[in-house]
Amino acid sequence: MLKVLLVDDEPFILQGLQVLIDWEKEGYEIATAVNGREALEYALENEVDLIISDIKMPVMTGLELLKAIRTTYKRETYFVILSGFAEFGYAQEAMRYDCTDYILKPVEKDQLLAILKNVAALSEKKSSQSERQEKQEKAYLDRNLMALLGGKYDSDNLEYLSEKINIDESMSYIGIQLDVETMADDYSDEEKKAQLKKLYAAAVSFLKENSDLCIMDVSDSEKVYDIGVIYCESMAEKKQLTFEKYLKEFVGYIKDNTNLPVTMLVGKMVSGIKNISKSYGSVNILRSLKGFRDQKDIYFYEEEYKISDTGIMICKKELDELIDAIELGESINIRKKVDEFYDEMQKMGITESSMDLNINYLLFQLIHLASELDSEVNQEEIFRIILESTTEEGIKRGGKKHLCKMAVVYGEYLAQLRKNVSKGVLGQVEDEIKKNYASNLTLKELSEKYYVNSAYLGQLFRKKYGCSFKDYLNNHRMEEAAKLLLKSDMKIYEVADAVGFKDVDYFVNKFIAAKGCTPTKYKKNTLQ
User: Fold this and answer.
1) 151 within a domain of the structure (yes/no)
2) Could you tell me if 260 and 194 lie in one domain?
3) Is residue 171 in a domain?
4) CA–CA distances in Å: residue 328 to residues 291, 372, 448
5) How does 313-325 read in b/e, with b if 16+ C-beta sit within 10 Å?
């Protein structure tokens, strides 16, 4: 509903305008004012889409009102002048201040309706253009933020972000993910994406002026549906809350407004945006640890990740033997060493907190082992993906069977790492993408086809191409979409479907991120 402000010092004219047409039917709600000054005060305090004003009025004329709206307050409100024949010169002057139109008195119904329809059309067009521009700007901001999260940035990234936030402020990366394990089994991927959009919308609503620092669908993993937030220290300070209370309020708001099962993972606090990749990495570790912890709404990295603690026992002998078995890929011995580890913990009567520290020690050593074989690969992310991929129905997350299965798969991964399988596999996968990019290709299916760990394959992609498998696939799809746009008369939704996207809005957002503009604008600019 558009808001129209009717301005005239003659009461009978105001009344006549109000009853001349069915304003609500035309999509307008009415406010009135008896002179320019009253109208200006109202327009500055309220959202007004259209002002219809008489020219000659006491206190402030219609022309003075228009000048103030345009020059002093820089408003783009549509403005229509009411004038008599004798005042036509004033109307001509009003046109110089971007007056939308003018109506000669007495006002005729058809003429007024025509102007209202024109204003509604202009407003809709402006809204669409504004929405497209906002999407383009957000996609570009997300691209810069993702570069920082990946630790790959340059001075241009920092200069751009410095215009948006205080890049030297203390910050933390926060991941908020859907707990898909608690959702109905028959939820399709598209339905989960729809729920993710609800989660993102709620987060944006809570963050308000900081909503630009919220990114949708951050994780590389096909099993993780998440959003990311760059938390700045000033966010809690503005609400006069502590860090912990702010985050509790945040996750509570999301749950109350979506009824979705979500978990918040809080990375370690770092100094400035240059170090945000370290906080992002700590959230990946936290995702791994979460599998060995009791379920809760918020996990803080600095609380969960500790290697040792005074007076708490670590079963170092049993864990080191388990690590040796994992390194050698001895699946039978791995099962034996897991049994010995749990037996020893039971004998010692180890508490929950001690169990956490033992798992932290194991995690730290395994990640360190893989990092020595390939330091350029994000080993924390691989560990997390392996941990999640080894969870099956009937196996308790973080339990004995889960640990055993995870250890066996991790041993296979280390073996692949030593063989450095990247040489032949990446070429085969790249050819597969070129041939079947429009299909629902997944990293898991390709890894099974070419006999390589999916987490490792994903990291090989990032290492060689500088992006995730998902981004590589989407980028290739965008290139094919660009060709279709230029070489055919296909509609946008047809192009989206042809390159493998069922959700047109998602396709458009990805196209903007890749090409810097909408598909329609890309086609228009390229063919000119």
Assistant:
1) no
2) yes
3) yes
4) 24, 15, 22
5) ebbeebbebbbeb
Last residue of a domain, one of 72, 100, 128: 128
SS3 content of the chain, % helix, strand, coil (to 5): 60, 10, 25
Copy the structure tokens of residue 40: 């200006």
C-alpha span between 207 and 212 (Å, rounded) = 9
Whether residue 261 is preceded by a cis peptide bond, meaning omega within 30 degrees of 0, is no
The whole-angstrom separation of Cα 194 and Cα 8 is 49
Report the amino acid identity of residue 124: E
The angle at the Cα of 254, spanning 353 to 263, to the nearest 5 degrees, equals: 25
pLDDT at 347 over 80: no
Q: How far apart are CA 102 and CA 21, in angstroms?
A: 18
| Same domain as 280, residue 320 | no
Q: Each residue of 57-110: pLDDT tens digit?
A: 999 999 999 999 998 988 889 999 988 755 666 666 777 788 888 888 888 999
368 in the same domain as 286: no
Residues 296 and 356 in one domain: no
273-303 per-position pLDDT tens digit = 999 998 998 888 787 766 666 678 999 988 8
- Which residues does residue 176 pair with via DSSP β-bridges, in sequence order? 227, 264
- CATH code of residue 523: 1.10.10.60
Phi, psi (degrees; rounded to nearest 5) at 294: -65, 145
Q: Please, which residues bridge with residue 270 across strands? A: 171
Pair of tokens at residue 474? 């989407």
Helix (H) / strand (E) element for 173: namely: strand 170-178
Clarify whether residues 287 and 174 are in a common domain: yes
DSSP class of residue 101?
Answer: E
Q: Can you give the residue range of the structural domain that contains 300?
A: 165-304
**Total domain count, the chain:** 4
Select from 384, 204, 165 the least CA-distant residue to 286: 384
**Structural domain contains residue 81:** yes
Output the six-digit token pair for 114: 């025509």
Residue with tokens 């979500």: 262
